[in-house]
Amino acid sequence: MGIMEVPPSVKREAVLCNHDCSCVTNGQCGDKEICKVDFAVGRKILFLTNEETIFCPYRVSYGSRQACICPVHCYIEGKGLYKSETTEKTPVAL
After folding, report:
1. CB within 8 A of 26, min separation 6: which ones?
2. What whole-number distance in Å separates Cα of residue 75 and Cα of residue 7?
3. What confidence score (pLDDT) does residue 3 get?
4. Taking the model in full, what pTM does it have?
């Protein structure tokens, strides 16, 4: 995966990222694959396919699910810049 066009303003919102937004340049979160998304709720919350608890300042537990609120990951998913091979993303309006 090549470098994705993510506006600097979106990257600046991800001040807590421990990996300097590496997903933008290589599609990975540090040395791990970027979290796969099951579905999106609006533009700011991504529910993940993996329910394992992994430390990330943008990963939160919601009941038995794991959600991502990373501004960069949400932007990438919302623009379709990183498509999951197994899941079609459908935003859910609140």
Report:
1. 1
2. 9
3. 62
4. 0.78
The tokens describing 2, both together, are 């090549």
Token pair 């933008």: residue: 24
Q: Strand 91-92 and strand 37-41: pairing?
A: parallel
Encoding tokens for residue 53? 């608890």
Contact call for residues 74 and 68 (beta carbons, < 8 A): yes
What residue type is 15 in one-letter code? V
Is 85 within 8 Å of 71 (Cβ atoms)? no
48 within 8 A of 68, measured Cβ to Cβ: yes
Amino acid letter, 16: L
Cα 82 to Cα 71: distance, rounded to the nearest angstrom: 14
Maximal C-alpha separation, the chain: 35
> Which pLDDT tens digit goes with each residue over 57-66?
999 998 889 9
